[in-house]
Specification:
By secondary structure, the protein is α+β, with helices and mostly antiparallel strands. The chain has helices at about 30-35, 100-110, 210-220; strands at about 50, 75-85, 85-95, 115, 120, 130, 145, 165-170, 175, 190, 195, 205, 235, 240-250. It has one domain (about 25-250): Cyclophilin (Beta Barrel), CATH 2.40.100. The chain is globular and about 50 Å long. The model is unreliable at about 5-35 (pLDDT under 50).
């Protein structure tokens, strides 16, 4: 599964990395709604219903996204993730997932993704993704809010799954990680080779060819070995991959 790991109130939960360290001011430990003087549990009033998560506070201070009653749902937006290993240009599709694109652009504008490391690389035969979007680098950090799924309905069945439950998330897909239904936050994954997943992950864009070149470089480096597993297929990438800046391309 491609998940962001929800945090417990006092101590971390992670199946891949052991520690959770969240640095910053007291504002970083408060929900965005609370920082703005609003009810820390009330969702925004528009159709996206961005909902504060006070038990899972923001890894970096960021307000709730705007939530207009007419969420932009047409056209594409280009975003470039400039990493230490090369650029990863993205094309976001508003028609495919308007609320997800709205949130991703909001976090990009607030520089939430700047100076963050892609914390997880998978190299299973049926799951090949790079996961990013957590400033803590642990797989447990998020923006202090969650929002609804916008799940794909037209993905082809995965030929590796005789039950038909899993679908093909094709090479170049950009999708949201989650911790269950309607728990999208800031973490996302980039598919570097066709993968088989249940259609439980919102697809909101694609990686362009230059970005795939960078992904291939990360994937070729493999997963970093650990004392307990010298040849892992899931964990931190051996080639440390830092998003130095994420910018909307105009």
């Amino acid at each position: 599964m491609v998940r962001n790991r929800p945090r417990r109130r006092m101590r971390p939960l992670s199946q891949v990395l052991a520690a959770l360290v969240i640095a910053g001011s007291s504002l970083a430990g408060a929900s965005p709604a609370a920082a703005n003087g609003a009810d820390p549990t009330e969702p925004t009033g528009g159709p996206c219903a961005f909902t504060p998560t006070p038990d899972d506070p923001a890894a970096r201070p960021v307000p709730l996204p705007p939530d207009p009653r007419r969420t932009p749902s047409r056209g594409t937006v280009h975003v470039v993730l400039r990493t230490n290993l090369g650029p990863i240009p993205l094309v976001l599709d508003r028609a495919q997932a308007p609320c997800t694109v709205l949130s991703f652009l909001h976090l990009t504008r607030h520089r939430f993704y700047d100076r963050t490391h892609c914390h997880r690389l998978t190299a299973y035969p049926t799951l090949k993704v790079l996961q990013c979007g957590d400033p803590t680098g642990t797989g447990e950090g998020g923006p202090g809010y969650r929002y609804q799924d916008e799940l794909p309905t037209d993905l082809p069945p995965a030929p590796t799954d005789p039950t038909g439950a899993r679908r093909v998330y094709a090479r170049g897909v950009l999708a949201m990680a989650n911790a269950g239904p309607d728990t999208n936050g800031s973490q996302f994954f980039l598919v570097y080779a066709d993968s088989a997943l249940r259609p439980n992950y919102t697809i909101f864009g694609t990686v362009d060819p230059a970005g795939l070149d960078t992904l291939d470089r990360v994937a070729a480096g493999g997963v970093a070995p650990t004392p307990d597993d010298p040849a892992p297929v899931d964990g931190a990438p051996a080639l440390s991959t830092e998003i130095r800046v994420a910018r909307i391309h105009r």
